[in-house]
Design brief:
4-stranded antiparallel β-sheet, two-stranded antiparallel ribbon, 5 helices, 6 strands, about 15% strand
Length: about 200
């Protein structure tokens, strides 16, 4: 069968041109507690330990129980004033968007996702089955744009390898799939925050 996204190119799907650079430091999902804590320490001059405590609270607030990302919301999450203005420089919003969605009759859902630079990647949600396993899924995530292997049976390698994905782009594939699965009553395990 034909690959559902075989004839799609970033240009055909309205990708920005020329590509703009990815600002991975500005994507909250690209940080774990350690890297965000280190960034807070470097940005605000606090100790690394204090930065990591604030980072843990910020990641729990942004991804554990998603809510507003405002001064007042961070204050209500008990994040000190010293860290709030620095944290508000980061975006908790996904850096990927759904360009196309291709569900199949067996419940598999192929997602064509667009990155901030217009690059297209694919994720696949595969249901485990019926009965007791009906709530389980497998999520296939991309770790790069394109592929250097160029296997004859695969469309992904046709254009070669473009670039590696950022940690935020990999985490966001999970976030997008989690939102889709929650709507389909296939909950994914909740996480307190992203991990690289």
């Amino acid at each position: 069968p034909t690959h559902p996204f075989a004839d799609r190119s970033p240009e055909a799907l309205g990708a920005p041109s020329p590509r703009h650079p990815i600002v991975k430091e500005r994507q909250l999902a690209g940080h774990d507690v350690d890297s965000l804590g280190d960034w807070l320490a470097a940005t605000t001059g606090c100790s690394v330990a204090r930065g990591r405590r604030a980072a843990a609270k910020a990641l729990r607030h942004a991804f554990g129980r998603p809510g507003a990302w405002t001064e007042a919301a961070l204050e209500s999450a008990k994040i000190g004033r010293w860290a709030r203005s620095a944290l508000l420089q980061l975006s908790p919003a996904p850096c990927l968007s759904i360009a196309e969605r291709a569900p199949s009759s067996d419940g598999t859902v192929r997602l064509l996702l667009r990155a901030l630079d217009g690059a297209l990647i694919e994720s696949v949600i595969i249901p485990a089955g019926k009965g007791r396993d009906r709530l389980r899924i497998t999520l296939c995530v991309s770790s790069q744009v394109g592929c250097a292997r160029a296997c004859s049976f695969c469309e992904t390698g046709v254009g070669g390898l473009d670039r590696q994905l950022t940690a935020a782009e990999i985490v966001d594939q999970y976030r997008i799939a989690a939102d889709i699965c929650r709507g389909a009553e296939r909950p994914l395990d909740a996480r307190d925050g992203p991990a690289e």
